[in-house]
């Protein structure tokens, strides 16, 4: 019995070492599982939770897209409650300059960020693979090798799409005219960055439109869909 | 028929080009719900569940979401091609990068493709929709080189696309004028060369309809004719 108690374990390690181990977690899921494994670790975690969560989160989410990921997450929290002033303030705070906004992180927020990131990672990879293979008209190694910087570029464009959805999803009573969006949103980006967003838009249109080569609804004829949509 | 009938123009029925504006307008409310919703649509396996997601709440279609906003992100046509830009024109018309991308690929390919284009078509130009399919602004320079984008015969493609772009510009101008006529009550056969075959309810055209976003296309018959002659 005495031998068992003498064995080193996480619960007997010094605080600094436990924090270092927690900070090395592969992802938010692993961090939360470790933290909740015993009271001793949980109490240590509470001393440095914001730093630990942000450290692990920024490792899990591609570091080259962190500002976009945070902006998309922050905008989703106000998605249904924008006022015109709030919208303008958000754009000024998040888009005037590309930076990582300081904030306190909790597990619930971190999980929301990683959930979206997993979706975007998948969409980015799918689009990149399909785009490259369509250009080469080949299904060989050249068509499937995609660099990290290219994937990051795709991911940033998908994040920008999500951010745009969160800001301008209200189609019945839009808070801003198209002209105002030109001056407040699109003017922040170079024309080729706006074209990246247009590429993502075109891809998503093809993804959901019946009858398109990338469409998931190929079994539904286009005329039938339009009949359904136009049934009023 | 599609090129000349007033009703076809009013409904923006286009020639066989994908993605057509009509279809996209019906997809926009679905896209506006964001990536999580789009991914859940992808995940649907049954016809019934797809339909329940595809049939959105009102509005059924929209021209105030992303596609039209990207078009509106362009400035009006100043008849000045990108390749003729002076340093001052660059400052006035090209927004610098938001994300300081160390790879020049996206900017170089964008400039190459748009060198014969005016600022009215810098973003989401319909003539470049095939390029957006292979995500032309997403790739590193080395990948673009592998794809052969910077080879000599590229210029021929560029010029062909230039003609296509100008042709597209005319078609949109034609549709917009026919839309005006339709809202004013006119029906029948229309051409840039004359409107004598239009049938008006009172025998003549009532006061001209004022529609939004006319500025990018030729506004008068004379301007449209001049544009046709410049293409010929």
Spans of at least 5 consecutive residues with low confidence of chain A: 213-224
The overall number of domains of chain A is 2
Name the structural class of chain B: mainly alpha
Count of helical stretches of chain A:
13
- State the assembly state of the protein chains: heterodimer
Order of helices and strands of chain A: HHHHHHHHHHHHH
Quote the distance from N terminus to C terminus of chain B. 22 Å
Percent of sequence in beta strands of chain B: under 5%
- The tally of strands of chain A reads 0
Query: What sequence of helices (H) and strands (E) makes up the elements of chain B?
Result: HHHHHHHHHHEEH
Major sheet strand order of chain B: 1-2
Structural class of chain A: mainly alpha
Note the overall shape of chain A.
Answer: globular
Helix content of chain A: 55-70%
Summarize the structure in words:
The complex is a heterodimer of chains A (232) and B (232). Chain A has 232 residues and is mostly helical. Chain A has two domains: 1-60, no CATH class; 63-229, no CATH class. Helices cover 67% and strands 0% of the residues of chain A. Chain A has helices at 2-6, 15-23, 28-35, 39-47, 49-60, 66-77, 84-95, 107-136, 141-144, 148-168, 178-184, 191-208, 222-229. The model of chain A is unreliable at 213-224 (pLDDT under 50). Chain B has a domain at 9-72. Chain B has helices spanning 6-10, 21-31, 35-43, 47-54, 66-72, 87-93, 105-114, 129-133, 141-147, 154-183, 221-231; strands spanning 187-188, 198-199. In chain B, helix 7 packs across helix 9 and helix 10 packs antiparallel against helix 11. The longest helix of chain B has 30 residues, at 154-183. Chain B is mainly alpha-helical. Chains A and B meet through helix 8, helix 10, helix 11, helix 12 and helix 13 of A and helix 2, helix 3, helix 4, helix 5 and helix 7 of B.
């Amino acid at each position: 019995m005495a031998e068992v108690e003498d064995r080193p374990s996480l619960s007997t390690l010094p605080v600094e070492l436990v924090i270092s181990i927690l900070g090395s977690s592969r992802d938010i899921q692993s961090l939360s599982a470790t933290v909740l494994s015993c009271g001793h670790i949980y109490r240590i975690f509470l001393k440095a939770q914001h730093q630990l969560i942000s450290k692990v989160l920024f490792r899990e989410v591609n570091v080259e897209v962190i500002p976009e990921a945070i902006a998309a997450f922050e905008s989703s929290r106000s998605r249904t409650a924008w006022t015109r002033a709030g919208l303008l303030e958000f754009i000024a705070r998040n888009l005037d300059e590309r930076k990582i906004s300081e904030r306190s992180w909790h597990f619930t927020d971190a999980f929301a960020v990683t959930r979206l990131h997993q979706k975007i990672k998948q969409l980015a990879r799918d689009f990149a693979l399909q785009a490259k293979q369509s250009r080469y008209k080949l299904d060989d190694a050249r068509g499937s090798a995609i660099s990290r910087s290219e994937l990051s570029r795709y991911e940033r464009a998908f994040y920008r799409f999500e951010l745009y959805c969160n800001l301008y999803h209200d189609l019945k009573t839009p808070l801003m005219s198209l002209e105002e969006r030109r001056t407040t949103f699109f003017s922040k980006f170079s024309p080729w960055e706006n074209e990246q967003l247009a590429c993502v838009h075109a891809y998503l249109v093809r993804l959901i439109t019946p009858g398109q080569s990338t469409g998931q609804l190929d079994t539904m004829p286009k005329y039938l869909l339009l009949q359904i949509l136009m049934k009023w | 028929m599609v090129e000349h009938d007033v009703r076809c123009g009013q409904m923006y029925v286009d020639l066989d080009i994908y993605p057509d504006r009509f279809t996209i307008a019906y997809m926009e409310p679905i896209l506006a719900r964001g990536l999580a919703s789009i991914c859940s649509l992808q995940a649907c396996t049954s016809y019934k569940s797809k339909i329940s997601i595809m049939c959105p709440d009102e509005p059924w279609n929209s021209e105030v979401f992303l596609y039209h906003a990207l078009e509106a992100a362009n400035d009006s046509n100043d008849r000045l091609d990108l390749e003729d830009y002076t340093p001052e024109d660059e400052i006035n018309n090209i927004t610098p990068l938001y994300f300081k991308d160390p790879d020049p690929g996206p900017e170089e390919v964008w400039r190459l493709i748009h060198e014969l284009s005016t600022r009215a078509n810098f973003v989401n130009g319909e003539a470049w929709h095939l390029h957006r399919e292979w995500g032309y602004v997403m790739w590193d320079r080395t990948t673009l080189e592998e794809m052969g984008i910077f080879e000599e015969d590229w210029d021929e493609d560029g010029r062909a696309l230039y003609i296509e772009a100008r042709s597209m510009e005319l078609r949109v101008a034609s549709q917009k004028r026919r839309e005006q006529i339709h809202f004013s009550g006119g029906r029948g056969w229309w051409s840039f060369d004359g409107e004598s075959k239009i049938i008006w309810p009172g025998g003549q055209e009532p006061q001209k309809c004022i529609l939004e976003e006319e500025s990018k296309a030729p506004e008068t018959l004379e301007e449209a004719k001049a544009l046709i002659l410049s293409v010929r």
